[in-house]
Specification:
By secondary structure, the chain is an alpha+beta fold. It folds into two domains: 79 residues, Ribosomal protein L6 (Outer Surface Protein A, domain 3), CATH 3.90.930; 93 residues, Ribosomal protein L6 (Outer Surface Protein A, domain 3, Alpha-Beta Complex). It is 19% helix and 42% strand. It is built from two helices and 13 strands; from the N terminus they run E-E-E-E-E-E-H-E-E-E-E-E-E-H-E. The strands form four sheets. The protein has a four-stranded antiparallel beta sheet with strand order 11-12-7-13, covered by helices on one side. The longest helix has 22 residues. The protein is elongated and about 60 Å long. The two termini are 41 Å apart.
């Protein structure tokens, strides 16, 4: 079995995007959309600054270190995409009999009249995500941080789960229809 002596993952930084590495392991990526900071700390894996980008390097990797290096590469690429383009998740409300109303109240997403319920259902909107309701049934969640946008969309989708009914028949709810 051949063992690799070094693995390097290259993260390219496009024009207008800069990276700042601090000594305590925090990496800040700044672009036209803003800046994102994340901590990358491991005793065998290092992140180095190259002329055209960042290098995630691990020497004499074992299976776990290879996996962590690949994960860090994906996180850094997501941060670069977030500060340049951002992330957008599109959801759609589906109902058959009781028309539900959707609105944003501060840091909460409120669903009224779900299956005719009198108590509104609520979902948390995390800091860094913006939620808009379009055409009464379309919900657009956008932001720079992919994890925050995805978790906010999941919170909205989870707020309308069907309980004590056959899900094959009662398919009302809010569902993810696209990611950009």
């Amino acid at each position: 079995m051949v063992q690799l002596d070094r693995i390097d993952h290259l993260v390219l930084l496009p024009d207008g995007v800069s990276a700042n590495l601090s000594e305590d392991g925090d990496i800040t990526i700044t672009g036209s959309g803003g800046s994102l900071t994340r901590s990358f700390i491991h005793k065998k894996i290092s992140v180095l600054q190259d002329g055209s980008g960042l290098i995630v390097r691990v020497d004499l990797p074992r299976r776990k270190e290879k996996a962590i290096a690949g994960t860090w590469n994906a996180h850094l690429n997501n941060m670069v995409k977030g500060v340049t383009d951002g992330f957008t998740y599109r959801l759609k409300a589906v109902y058959s009999h009781f028309p539900m109303t959707l609105k944003v109240e501060g840091n909460n997403f409120v669903v009224n009249n779900y299956f005719g319920e009198r108590v509104p259902r609520r979902a948390d909107i995390l800091n860094g995500a913006t939620v808009k309701v379009q055409n009464k049934v379309e919900v657009v969640v956008s932001g720079m941080d992919r994890e925050v946008v995805g978790q906010t969309a999941a919170n909205i989708e989870r707020s309308c789960t069907v309980k004590n009914r056959d899900r094959r028949v009662f398919q009302d709810g809010i569902y993810l229809v696209g990611k950009e």
